[in-house]
Give the backbone structure.
Amino acid sequence: MDHKRITLFAGHYGSGKTNIAVNYALLLAREGKKTAIADLDIVNPYFRTKDSASDLEAAGVDLISPQFANTNVDLPALPAEAYRLVEEGVYLTAKPKNMLFGFPYESKEHYVTSLSFEMEPESFGEEGGRPQDITQIPFEGILDEFSVYISDFYDQLNAESDTRCYQEFASSDLEDIRRLRSIIGRRVYAQEIPNAGRDEEDWTLVIE
């Protein structure tokens, strides 16, 4: 199925749009996609996705619905969290899936973006690289250059691919993510520095 970045389900009362939306979100999550479901049913209001909150949370799907959904104070209003879909390819989350490398970020909100790429086994530092064994080089340089960290290795997607690699990058600063996305469509690799000193880096990051 050709998944779109944003999919809308609309229909009459009782037509099953909530069930379809919940199951579609769970399907996307099983495919390894970063998924959020936003309940916009402010007309009734009922916000029935709240009934599936535990299943959605277990699958890693972010549920966006009013705090008092399914209570006696249901209101026809949307929460500020609905603005977490920031811009094309960028998502704001309060809880990245992984906080790797022990980065001491104070911000409780982090911007994430997912990139796919193919490694170059013939390039320096990428010898033998494959989706199931992504090399440290040149990713160490990418993390340093753009002040980002890896928030999800997408193990399932990488396990199913022979050539294409997937990674989710995150930062507490939106500008870092925007700068990182500037490498989309460009070649990024490490270039060896001949005769580097003992205390010097023996490679540099190249972006073409």
